[in-house]
Sequence to fold (357 residues):
Amino acid sequence: MKRRIVSLILSLLFPISALPCSAFFIPQSAESYMGKSYDWHYGHGYLTINKRNVKKESFQFNADDVSFTWTSKFGSVSFNQYGHEFPLGGINEAGLAIEVLWLSESTYPDASSQRSINESQWIQYMLDSAENIEELITLARMVRISPVQASVHYLACDQKKNCAVIEYLQKNLVIHSNAKNSPLPMDIPSITNSNYDSSENFAQDFKGFGGNEDIPGGYGSLNRFVRASYLAKVAPLGEGNSLSSNYPFEILDSVASSGGFSKFNIVYNLRDKKLFYRTRFDNTAVRSVELSKLNFDCSKPTQTLNLENNLSGDVSEEFSDYSYQENLNMVKKSLPEYPSYVHQLIATYPNSTECMN
Fold:
C-alpha cells in the first residue's frame, strides 16, 4: 500500500499538459555555448548548489522498481521547480550540462531487474556522476527510467564539444551523439519537442542543411528546431572563435512561445563552467553564476537562490543556506491542488541524503 501511495504522489510531480521548449548547442563557439528556453506554466523556482561526495538513493514509486545508491563525484548547479534533487537541468563542475524537454511520444521500458530512476532525478544522477558525454552514455545504458509523469527527452553537452540526445522510443533507449561510444550519429546538436530523427530529417529540406527552402518562422516544434539550429550554425564568431553570451539569448528570443509561457532562458558556457539566465517576467536582467566561485564541499550547507529576485550580473555570492521550508513552499506552489502530505514527502527527500566526508 505504501508503494502505491508513493506511486500516486510521484505521478503528480509534473503537470500533464505540455508547452514548447527549445535547446541547442553552438559547437564552433570557443565558449561552447548551450541554450535552453523554458516554456511552461510556472516560472518560479530555485538555483541549487548540489554538493559532491553526497550519498543518495534513487526515489522509487513502483513496487517492481529496483532502487540503487550512488555518491556524487561532482558538484553542480541546477534549476529546480518541483523539489530539491529533482531538477529541470543544470551544469556540473566538469563542464557537463543537461536539459530536459517534453516529448509526448516517449514510451519507457517495462519493469525489470534493471536499476531504475525517475525521469527528473535522472538529471541529478548524471550531473553527480558523469564527467563527459561518453560517461553519460555508459551510465544511461546501466539504468532504466521509470517515469513519474512526464514524457521527456534530454540534450546533454560537455566542454569537449560532444553532445547527446537521449530518448525512450517504443520502450527502447535511443541515443544520438557525436561521442565515440554513441550507437547513432548526431549532426545537429538541438532538440525541441519532436524526436531527434524526425527533426533532423525535416531540417534537410532547408538552407544550411542541404535543402533549398528558407528557414521557417512559426512556433511548431519542427520549425523551432530548424530555426534554432540554423541560428546556432551561423553564429557571428569573433577573434579566436569567441562569441558574446548575448547571441544565444537572441536565439532563445526567436523560439520563445507566445502567450507569456516562456518563463526563463538559460545559457551555459561549458568551457568556463559558467551559466547565465534571465527570467521573462518582473526582472529581465541577465544573471550569471561561476561554478569556480562556489563551495561544493558537502560538509557545508547546501545553498539556493530564488529565481524570482531583483539581482543582475554575477550572483555567485548571493546564494543562501537551503531550508526545508523554502523547498516545501516551492513544491506547494508547483502543486497547489494537492494535499500537504504529498508536498511533505517530496520536500523531505533531501533529508535522506548523506554527506560522506
Observations:
- Helices lie at 2-10, 121-129, 133-142, 196-203, 221-233, 246-255, 324-334, 340-348.
- The longest strand covers residues 262-269.
